[in-house]
Amino acid sequence: MPMQSLMILLVGVALLITGAIVLGRTVLSKADYIVEEVTFNNGEVTRAGTLTLPAVAGQHPAVVLMTGTGPQDRDNVVVPRFRLFQQIADYLTQNGIAILRYDDRGVGASGGVFEEASIYDFASDAAAAIAYQASRAAINPNQTGVLGRSEGG
Length: 153
Hints:
Helix content is 31%, strand content 31%. By secondary structure, it is an alpha/beta fold. The strands form 2 sheets. The chain has a 5-stranded mixed beta sheet, sandwiched between helices. A two-stranded antiparallel sheet has the order 4-5.
């Protein structure tokens, strides 16, 4: 699947998930995939996140989820009890796409200080996340992408 098509698909899926959540439906079953708490480094800063992998063997297409402006956790909780990135990861992983989502610098289990970081640091963190995800044996390095919102998009 060409990268542009994958990105258009992911945006459409995000809108469908958001619609499902607004209508009161939930898609939070972890029965069909593997959840791993992971860490990766960007220079001196250790980042912490969650990698979800389809439970079937083989290499999978993969996406890194990017948060927007301001300090946010891996679930992108910008509205209380609304875990946008957890919902997106759940849906996409149940449909065969591996997802890496991670805490911003100084948020959750990630090291660093958010207020001391620049947009270049955040971009470098994203590159480190992509490289980490692509290094995993279960990831198809030719089918990777990024999905973000606000500053992360």
